[in-house]
């Protein structure tokens, strides 16, 4: 490395003056962020374990070819498993370890969808047979629902599962090109088994889409089983990024599986060929998606806080303009424009943390009720998971991109960590349900509720997240004709769905503040952030609030003044508020966001490590540059 002194690289905390300004107990805030002292302890321990182990190094991803990248992911997944087994980590610790390894891999689908699908939709007997194998990773599973021709429209899937009573088997078949399974993560190169979704046909009658456990590859030599065609679907957006995942294509050619491999908690097929439906609602076939949507909401705050941490630290390091008498220039974080873009994202990260916590509670509650055959809160749970998944992933993906811009030119470097973070995160707006399609589900739920408010026949009072509807006078009087005009009004209804979800986020943030929150100044900081979150939304949508007469122009102006004052209150605490996320430099993966703020020497050093700088004169000079310079281009072999 040229031109950088040792002392500039090591030991100096360039953000110490910022940390000294903070007005609250950062360690107490770390516990609030983690959720509990126990959660903090696990997260802190495991993140440090991963960061200190060279086996989990990740700084070379953007320079590897797809094949090298994928092999490296396989190595890391195997190494992570060995670490989990050797250290006898608990399930909670193991999940944290996979999280901090921070590389999309087949294991996400195995633990995140395959196992939950068996748990949620399998019978006791099926769980006893399959879960021990899956827990020990003696089989590796994926979730194969989406097809080339249909993703959002699950009822439109074309794969068939026809019952053969002669052999007591299902025949799984892909009748068309568009029925090829397409996208499932882990399917392309790794999974030995899939939960495959197919239209059930018994005795010539169709019974809709159901899940089946299908073995795909030999457990001896990994070759595809008879009738299975399987492979990877190819490179995806961004270098490195989600290309560590083997999203796959799969065709079935009359593949036979035993009858007991249909997931039979919701409905059953007997050996005589009788189709039986349990008392539970059919929608439970979609249960795994509800579970994963809830985990995606919980994870949104991690991705957003990571980007915000990088942009905040760098904004305190970066200086532009404003030097007085040869003194230092202004830190860009002191510009009001920078604050008005950055601090609402900081507030959103905290808001999403708490909404994720609340949604976990809601999901646990609905699961408990379902077990007791109480299905009353299922529609609300579906609407909340779908709507909040849509809201938080859209805001997080947009927020990561905004953080990149907040870091100016250096944000565009891979070493800022932000391009890869965006590329890995942005498909969350599509997978587990396209965000618009999911908002339409929320709109449908809201319209149904409104129509019931207007109906004299219904004695149901809205409760939970829709309880507020009884307080909105014009909704109470509404004879809802919207159901008929739903498609025509869908663009507006989607906006209403977003507003409904924002209301949930704001009210759960306020509820959080009503709890006891220990630690000097911690609650005050959270109050400031909560007010920023709410007022920023009000400011952004002031046109809607004004046009509906909910606020006056004077209110709008006051809100904006207040927002500016809140930004000034956050400013001295900004670095401490991102320190409270407790991210290691390994997890952040960003030179701009490194804890000590010593950005420039690290950027300089990293540039020299780029493979292009391995030689001073580049490969290709003699073929393409020299002939150009020597005006010999016509004779050169191009
Ligand atoms: C810590 C571990 C983390 C792991 C995370 C791993 C992440 C790895 C990354 C990626 C993995 C990605 C995986 C995938 O993408 S899997 C595929 C996901 N696919 C989708 O999400 C498809 C989206 N489409 C749907 O969900 C549905 O088809 C639909 C909801 C859009 C429409 O369904 P349809 O059958 O047409 O239903 P209707 O509209 O007719 O509705 C009927 C009725 O049912 C209600 N309803 C719909 N869905 C649900 C549900 N999930 N739960 C409960 N109820 C549901 C719907 O509201 C209607 O109700 P009604 O109005 O009262 O009649
Ligand atoms: C990275 C990644 C990983 C994935 N992993 C898996 C996996 O592991 N397993 C799996 O089964 N699947 C997986 N998927 C597939 C994913 O679930 C689907 O892509 C997703 O559900 C969206 O469906 P689609 O692709 O059919 O989009 P489409 O429905 O074709 O969407 C295209 C456009 O049409 C619009 N649209 C669609 N329907 C309507 C409507 N009714 N009204 C208004 N607008 C509409 C959408 O808003 C969107 O703008 C993955 C996808 C990605 C990108």
From TrEMBL:
GO terms for molecular function: acyl-CoA oxidase activity; FAD binding; fatty acid binding. One of its GO terms (cellular component) is peroxisome. It is found in: Peroxisome. Gene3D superfamilies: Acyl-CoA dehydrogenase/oxidase, N-terminal domain, Butyryl-CoA Dehydrogenase, subunit A, domain 2, Butyryl-CoA Dehydrogenase, subunit A, domain 3. Its cofactor is FAD. It holds the Pfam family ACOX. FAD binds at residues 146, 185. Its main location: other. The keyword Transferase does not apply. Residues 473-630 form the Acyl-CoA oxidase C-terminal domain. PANTHER family: ELECTRON TRANSPORT OXIDOREDUCTASE, PEROXISOMAL ACYL-COENZYME A OXIDASE 1. Belongs to the acyl-CoA oxidase family. This is Acyl-coenzyme A oxidase. It comes from Rhododendron griersonianum.
């Amino acid at each position: 490395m040229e031109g950088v002194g040792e002392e500039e690289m090591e030991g100096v905390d360039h953000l110490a003056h910022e940390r000294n300004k903070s007005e609250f107990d950062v360690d107490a805030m770390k516990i609030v962020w983690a959720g509990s002292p126990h959660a903090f302890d696990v997260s802190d321990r495991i993140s440090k374990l991963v960061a200190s182990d060279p086996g989990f190094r990740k700084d070379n991803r953007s320079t590897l070819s797809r094949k090298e990248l994928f092999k490296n992911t396989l190595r890391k997944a195997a190494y992570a498993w060995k670490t989990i087994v050797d250290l006898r980590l608990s399930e909670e610790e193991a999940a944290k370890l996979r999280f901090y390894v921070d590389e999309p891999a087949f294991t996400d689908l195995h633990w995140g969808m395959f196992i939950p699908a068996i748990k949620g939709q399998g019978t006791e007997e099926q769980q006893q047979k399959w879960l021990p194998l899956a827990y020990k990773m003696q089989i590796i599973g994926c979730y194969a629902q989406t097809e080339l021709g249909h993703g959002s429209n699950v009822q439109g899937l074309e794969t068939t599962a026809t019952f053969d009573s002669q052999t007591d088997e299902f025949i799984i078949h892909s009748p068309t090109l568009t029925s090829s399974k397409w996208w499932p993560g882990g399917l392309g190169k790794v999974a030995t088994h899939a939960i495959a979704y197919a239209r059930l046909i018994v005795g010539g009658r169709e019974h809709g889409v159901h899940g089946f456990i299908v073995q795909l590859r030999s457990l001896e030599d990994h070759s595809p089983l008879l009738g299975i065609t399987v492979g990877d679907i190819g490179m995806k957006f961004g270098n490195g990024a989600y290309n560590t995942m083997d999203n796959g294509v799969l065709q079935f050619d009359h593949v036979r599986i035993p009858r007991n491999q249909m997931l039979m908690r919701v409905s059953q097929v007997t050996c005589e060929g009788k189709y039986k439906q349990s008392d539970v609602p059919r929608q439970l076939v979609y249960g795994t998606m509800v579970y994963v949507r809830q985990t995606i909401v919980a994870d949104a705050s991690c991705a957003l806080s990571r980007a915000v941490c990088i942009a905040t630290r760098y904004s305190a390091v970066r200086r532009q303009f404003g030097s007085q008498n040869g003194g230092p220039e202004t830190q860009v974080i002191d510009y009001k424009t920078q604050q008005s873009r950055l601090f609402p994202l900081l507030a959103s990260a905290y808001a999403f943390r708490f909404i994720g916590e609340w949604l976990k509670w809601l999901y646990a509650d609905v699961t408990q009720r379902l077990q007791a055959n109480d299905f009353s809160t299922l529609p609300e749970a579906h609407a909340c998971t779908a709507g909040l998944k849509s809201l938080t992933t859209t805001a997080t993906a947009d927020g990561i991109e905004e953080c990149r811009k907040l870091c100016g030119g250096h944000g565009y470097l891979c070493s800022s960590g932000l391009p890869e973070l965006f590329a890995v995160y942005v498909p969350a707006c599509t997978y587990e349900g396209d965000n618009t399609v999911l908002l339409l589900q929320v709109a449908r739920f809201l319209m149904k509720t409104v129509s019931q408010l207007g109906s004299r026949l219904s004695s149901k009072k809205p409760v939970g997240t829709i309880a507020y509807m009884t307080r909105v006078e014009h909704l109470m009087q509404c004879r809802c004709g919207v159901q008929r005009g739903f498609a025509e009004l869908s663009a507006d209804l989607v906006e209403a769905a977003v507003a409904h979800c924002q209301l949930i986020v704001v009210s759960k943030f306020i509820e959080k503040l009503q709890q006891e929150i220990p630690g000097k100044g911690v609650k005050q900081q959270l109050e400031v952030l909560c007010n920023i979150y709410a007022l920023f939304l009000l400011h952004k949508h002031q046109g809607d609030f004004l046009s509906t007469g909910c606020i006056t122009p004077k209110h709008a102006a006051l809100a904006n003044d207040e927002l500016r004052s809140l930004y000034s209150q956050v400013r001295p605490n900004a670095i401490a508020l991102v320190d409270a996320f407790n991210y290691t430099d390994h997890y952040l993966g960003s030179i701009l966001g490194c804890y000590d703020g010593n950005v420039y020497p690290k950027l300089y050093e990293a540039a020299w490590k780029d493979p292009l700088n391995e030689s001073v004169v580049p490969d290709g000079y003699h073929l393409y540059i020299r002939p150009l310079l020597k005006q010999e281009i016509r004779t050169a072999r191009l």
